[in-house]
Amino acid sequence: VQLVESGGGLVQAGGSLKLSCAPSGFHFDGYAIEWFRQAPGKEREGVSCIASSDSTTRYVDSVKGRFTVSFNDAKNIVYLQMDSLKPEDTAVYYCATKTGCGSRGYLLWGQGTQVTVPS
C-alpha cells in the first residue's frame, strides 16, 4: 500500500496548482487525509485535512481562503487546489492518512511533490 502525490511544479506568485493524492492498494474510506509541507530549514507544517467520512475540512491559517481540499469518493483521490500562491508556499507537499483530522501522527505518507513559487 502506498500514497502517490502529483501535480507539483513551478508557478509564479499569484498562480495556481492542483495537487492530487491517490492511494494504491486501499480506499480512503474511514480515514482522514492530511496535506503537510516541508520547506528547507523549516519545521513540517500541516496545511489542510479532510475527513473522508463527511468531508469535514481543516486549514492552517496561512492558507485559509487560498487553498481548498476535496475528496472525490468515486475516483478515490484527494485534491488540494492552491490559488494565489506565494513564495512562502514553496515546499515539498505530502499527503498522509490519519485516523482523524484531530489525531496525532500519520499512518502512511507519500513521497511528496515539489511546489516552487519564486520570489
Q: Would you give an account of this structure?
A:
This protein is an all-beta fold and 119 residues long. It is built from no helices and eleven strands. The protein has strands at 2-6, 9-10, 17-24, 32-38, 45-51, 57-59, 67-72, 77-82, 91-98, 108-109, 113-116. The strands form two sheets. Strands 2, 4, 5, 6, 9, 10 and 11 form a seven-stranded mixed sheet that branches. Strands 1-3-8-7 form a four-stranded antiparallel sheet, with no helix packed on it. The chain is globular and about 40 Å long. 31% of the residues are buried. The mean pLDDT is 97.
Our Rg estimate from Cα atoms comes to: 13 Å
Percent strand equals over 45%
What does the main sheet amount to? 7 strands, mixed
Unreliable parts: none
The ordered string of helix (H) and strand (E) elements is EEEEEEEEEEE
**DSSP, total strands:** 11
Summarize the structure.
This protein has strands spanning 2-6, 9-10, 17-24, 32-38, 45-51, 57-59, 67-72, 77-82, 91-98, 108-109, 113-116. The protein is mainly β and 119 residues long. 31% of the residues are buried.
